[in-house]
Description:
Layout: E1 2-4, H1 14-34, E2 41-50, E3 53-63, E4 66-73, E5 78-81, E6 87-91, E7 94-98, H2 101-117, H3 120-123, E8 126-127, E9 131-132, E10 143-149, E11 154-156, E12 166-168, H4 172-186, H5 202-214, E13 249-253, E14 259-264, E15 286-290, E16 294-298, E17 304-306, E18 319-323, E19 326-331, E20 336-342
Parallel strand pairs: 1-2, 4-10, 5-11, 10-12
Antiparallel strand pairs: 2-3, 3-4, 5-6, 6-7, 8-9, 13-14, 15-16, 16-17, 18-19, 19-20
Amino acid sequence: MILKELDPFTSDDKFEKAGRIAEEQLAFYLRRAFVENKEILVFNNLRFEKDNDVAQIDHLILHKYGMIIIESKSVTTKVEINEREEWIRWFDNAPKGMPSPIQQAKRQGEFLRKYLNQNASALLEKLFFGVMGPHGRFRAMPLDIIVAISDSGIVERPKSVSLEEVCKADQVSDRIRSIFDRWRKANGVLSLDLSGGYVFTKDEIDNITKFLMANNKPLAHQASPQEIPVAKPAPKPWNSNRNVSESSENKVKSSYGQPSVTQKQPEKNIEVKPVQVCGYCKSVSLRIEYGYNYYFKCLDCEKNTTIKSTCKSCGEKDKTRKSGLHFYSECSQCQTSKLFYTNPVTR
């Protein structure tokens, strides 16, 4: 069953558009395969926030024996994976390194497992005088990984490494069925597979489903660093030396003392908190670090993105000020200061 569709999407960034096409392609295959399957529950686009950390999951499968995280990758040319499981992407017949989608999905899985485990008492049934049942909370939950490569892409694999996690988008549905059947057999009555023994009840699946939907924090738009929106200050009253009425409309007198047209009180601008993303892989997992200047360090691809912020009132370049984990953009000309980023907590 499809429990969550893809979130609305608008962007002019070509990389974001390509990533969206890959997600839509896979969502189509998942719908075609599981729309009427009550044992395979599909969530497209989930985003969770916890303790200044974020996990963005392209597709999540929930079934009675565990979960599957699917990472969609847009590949229009070729990706190559060597014996050390390092990934190389080809652009214009030139190789370029890229972060491993397998490791990225594993980090998302670690976040999700910990996030669920912190709420296990409300999600899982309790047996034996308040002690958790055979699940042992979410630490023992089977959590499989699939990396889906666009149908048009070419994947070159090393001969010495199987990499079962990696497949083309049109093969994902069969891979999900294979994983589900493996765990179903492991939990069979006559099975000798010691990896079995973890099964969600119907009530637990309902609890988890409601929890995932309630705690999803979608982004309306993932802007690139070049188009990060900055809040504009509210416009000044038409004449700051006069007493302006509290009414939303004020009569403005002409130079002859006669009332002229009715003028509306300027509306307050709604402040839009900018979304900070990596300039290379578009990840939102960032940390501000300092070299000669402050910059964003991507926790996924480990590349650096320059912090660019200009005061919208006077056009001067903002300065970055650090206070603990918080970072502020400040204009010395206008004497303004606004929080624009908070670093994740280091454990």
